[in-house]
Write a structure and sequence with these properties.
6 strands; alpha/beta; 219 residues; TIM Barrel; two-stranded antiparallel ribbon; 2 domains; globular; four-stranded parallel beta sheet; single chain
Amino acid sequence: MRVAIDAVLESGKLCEAAICYSGNLSSPHERKYTLDYYLKLARELKAAGTHILGIKDMAGLCQPRAAYDLVKALREETDLPVHFHTHDTSGIAAASVFAAIAAGADAVDAAMDSMSGLTSQPNLGSIVEALRFGRRDPGLDGEHIRTISHYWARCENNMRRSKATIAPAPRKCMCTACRAGSTRICANRRARWASTTHAGRKSREPTPTSTTCLAMSSR
């Protein structure tokens, strides 16, 4: 990271360095990824010249209490802006985002409503409305968020319809004979020869030759 940090600083740009979150900071049994572990990294990053500290919860593991404790400690220890990034894999990431905000996070990541949840980020529209009229109101226009969300929802539907009209490419047979380069047609290939669906119509693949393997594998 030091090479990248130095390069950004030499260019005169804003440098944000991320600390990857792992383990379970809330657990009394945690021995490696403790608060001291993260604070040590934060001090090293500040000494290297970092302008912003990022918390990268790439697996959506950061529980609400851990998010609050970590953000609060980082702000107090370094006095640097803190950016909290998580994923909604567990379905509880919005609670962690609110906990980070309550602890003083300067920036949090969220996803457009129609593209939020699961491995994406928590719902932006919901977070904005939950914070509205409060001390940390981001001031974003809910109507504009919904307009953009509807746009991406239409794009997603169009992509799904396009994919439905494209026949899947045939895959190679993965039996021992075929993987070894045999030119004979194996019994497995003949038995598993299947119809493919194209644009809603059933069609039949051409019969394979003894030198070409087009059978569908289980991969």
